[in-house]
Each structure stands twice: as C-alpha cells, then as structure tokens.
Amino acid sequence: MSKKDELLYDVRIAERNIKDGALSKKDYEKHLDKLSDVEEKGEVLIIEDEEAGPEIELDQIEEEESE
To answer: Are 11 and 28 within 8 A, CB to CB?
Structure first.
C-alpha cells in the first residue's frame, strides 16, 4: 500500500475522506475487514500521574466499569 493509500484509510482522517468523496464508505469497510486482529499483541499501558493522587489498581477499575 502506498503512503497516499495509507493516509486515505488512516482512522484519524478516514471520516473526512469519506465526507469529501475521496473514499467511499463501502471501500473503507472492505479495508477494515481485511485487517487482521492483533488484540493479543497489545499490552496494558499504565500512565502514572504524580499529581493524580494514589494509584488505582487495574482490578478496581474493572470492578467499577462492571457496576
């Protein structure tokens, strides 16, 4: 895929490209269907903010979201 094509399908500007007519919604959906699932390669990123106060454990966040 060329650099121009990469930008055309870039998730950050794809909606604008669809609105401008540079990309059809159907072509964009086809592109998304072709992408492989790489979720298992992801890692949890914990960003510590010294000003935010005490750290919250990931388990606490998951419990709050499930309530």
So the answer is: no
